[in-house]
């Protein structure tokens, strides 16, 4: 029996999304999505998450009435290695990543699930970060030009970057970790910064004299919850407990730090567009990109006014240069990053197995 089923999987800290599709050669290599399923687990329980990931893997390996052709799996980094030749290929870092998926080897789990399914022992497996998966899925949703570079930034408990040209990831030694990028603390933050990791500051020294901190420490959902002193809630729920003025202050400061990150991404990559992704279940505001764009332009203008080195290209002049993730029309009723990422991984699995010179199309 010919193998035609392709599966894409996107794992998050709270659950996973599985999309399966059918591979066929009508008019060139094509992929038709046919099913979507979701799983959830306790973010506070590595044991529950580990058990549910194994259940998800078994479910994904059983999809389709025919043998699986290929499977793509994405998860939150950092990974130990994404090189197939390494023994730690597909393993999420055991101490440097956020729980609850910390330490899981995705390749081992999903390959084991395929081996248990006697119909699909030869299906190939490809693994990417969640941000790369979303970058591919976003490029599909936007029908981007094959030569266009898109940078996708996931903003959640961590902050991640995925970069694609057309629908192909930009290859590197491991993967980007833009959440580690150090940014300048805003001068009005005050001497007693509210985030608990910052014990290393000098006593009574103004923030302007402090060291810089990572954009994840300042702008992630964890940072928002700490600012609100409500670590028991989601970022959205925590913000809703505050008066409007306090909420606006926090969102403005976060946008300022995210704008610095976007500027760093721009000067290093000069992408055609930057997409900011927040799952709407947890999103802290409806138009994050609009707020970030305002600060981004102010940073560029400040450099120009100070007669500092600066560069311009046409896309930088358009407000759409920084935008919010789009809804996968016909697949998801709302902006769900799990769907975007799973669609991206289904496409990546087929494209990887087909070879770099083949560009599959989606029905």
Model description:
About 2% of the residues have low confidence. Strand 1 and strand 2 form a beta hairpin. This protein is α/β, with parallel strands linked by helices and 363 residues long. It is globular. The chain contains nine helices and 13 strands. The two termini are 23 Å apart.
Strand line-up across the major sheet: 5-4-1-2-3-13
Structural class, from secondary structure content?
A: alpha/beta
Give unreliable regions as ranges: 196-202
Largest sheet: 6 strands, mixed
Shape: globular
Helix content: 25-40%
For the structure shown, list the relevant keywords.
363 residues; alpha/beta; 6-stranded mixed β-sheet; 5-stranded mixed β-sheet; 33% helix; globular
Quick overview:
With 363 residues, the chain is α/β, with parallel strands linked by helices. It is 33% helix and 20% strand.
Which helices and strands, and how do they pair?
Blueprint: E1 5-11, E2 15-24, E3 30-40, H1 46-61, E4 68-75, H2 106-116, E5 124-129, H3 130-142, E6 149-155, E7 159-165, E8 168-169, E9 182-183, E10 213-214, H4 215-219, H5 221-228, H6 235-240, H7 244-269, E11 273-277, H8 288-305, E12 322-324, H9 337-354, E13 361-362
Parallel strand pairs: 1-4, 3-13, 4-5, 6-11, 11-12
Antiparallel strand pairs: 1-2, 2-3, 6-7, 7-8, 9-10
Helix pairs in contact: 1-2, 3-9, 7-8
């Amino acid at each position: 029996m010919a193998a035609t089923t392709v599966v894409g999987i996107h794992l998050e800290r709270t659950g996973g999304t599985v999309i399966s599709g059918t591979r066929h050669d009508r008019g060139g290599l094509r992929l038709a999505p046919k099913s979507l399923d979701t799983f959830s687990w306790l973010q506070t329980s590595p044991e529950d998450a580990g058990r549910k990931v194994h259940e998800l893997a078994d479910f994904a390996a059983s999809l389709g009435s025919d043998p699986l052709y290929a499977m793509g799996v994405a998860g939150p980094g950092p990974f130990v290695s994404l090189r197939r030749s390494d023994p730690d290929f597909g393993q999420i870092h055991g101490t440097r990543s956020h729980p609850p998926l910390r330490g899981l080897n995705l390749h081992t789990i999903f390959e084991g699930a395929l081996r248990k399914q006697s119909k699909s022992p030869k299906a190939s497996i490809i693994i990417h970060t969640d941000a790369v998966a979303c970058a591919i899925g976003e490029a599909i949703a936007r029908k981007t030009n094959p030569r266009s570079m898109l940078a996708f930034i996931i903003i959640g408990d961590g902050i991640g970057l995925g970069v694609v040209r057309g629908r192909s990831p930009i290859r590197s030694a491991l993967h980007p970790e833009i959440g580690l990028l150090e940014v300048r603390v805003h001068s009005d933050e005050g001497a007693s910064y509210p985030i608990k990791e910052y014990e290393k500051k000098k006593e009574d020294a103004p923030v302007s004299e402090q060291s810089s901190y990572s954009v994840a420490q300042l702008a992630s959902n964890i940072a928002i919850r700490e600012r609100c002193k409500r670590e028991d809630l989601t970022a959205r729920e925590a913000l809703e407990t505050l008066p409007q003025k306090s909420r606006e202050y926090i969102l403005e400061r976060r946008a300022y730090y995210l704008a610095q990150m976007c500027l760093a991404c721009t000067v290093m990559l000069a992408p055609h567009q930057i997409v900011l992704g927040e799952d709407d279940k947890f999103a802290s505001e409806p138009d994050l990109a609009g707020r970030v764009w305002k600060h981004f332009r102010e940073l560029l203008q400040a450099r120009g006014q100070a007669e500092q080195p600066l560069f311009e290209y046409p896309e930088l002049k358009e407000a759409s240069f920084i935008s919010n993730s789009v809804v996968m029309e016909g697949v998801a009723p709302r902006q769900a990053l799990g769907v975007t990422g799973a669609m991206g991984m289904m496409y990546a699995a087929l494209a990887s197995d087909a070879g770099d010179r083949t560009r599959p199309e989606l029905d």
